[in-house]
Amino acid sequence: MITERRVQSRSNLRVPLLLLAQGWALPVRTETENVSMDGFFCRTRELFAPGDRFKFLLLLPAAARDSDAKITCLQGTAEVVRIRSSAPGGEYAIGCRMSAYRVINNFDPASEEMSALLSEAGRFEAWLANK
User: Which of 21, 32, 41, 131 is least enclosed, having the fewest CB within 10 Å?
Assistant: First the structure.
């Protein structure tokens, strides 16, 4: 018998996710495998340790009829609470608890600004600080 450790139930939801740890110039792109009210589970090639904190941007799916519309995302900080290093493809599976987040509406992930944020060192962190 397996004992459930999670307080909140999780939904199998694959959505784009950007992670930015202290000292990183550029965010790491990944996607969630599941999400709850207080956390998410994802895979990354970057090595984290339990207790590591990072900033994140989680892009929520747009309604199918509004596929060209701007979307809603969550921006905040999270902490690694669990790691599984035996993930396929040399990735690490990490369980994260969100410690703080806020909702950003009308976000355009296809904008030129977003391209610059993901490709120019330090731009993403500065953008997060001003949001």
Answer: 131
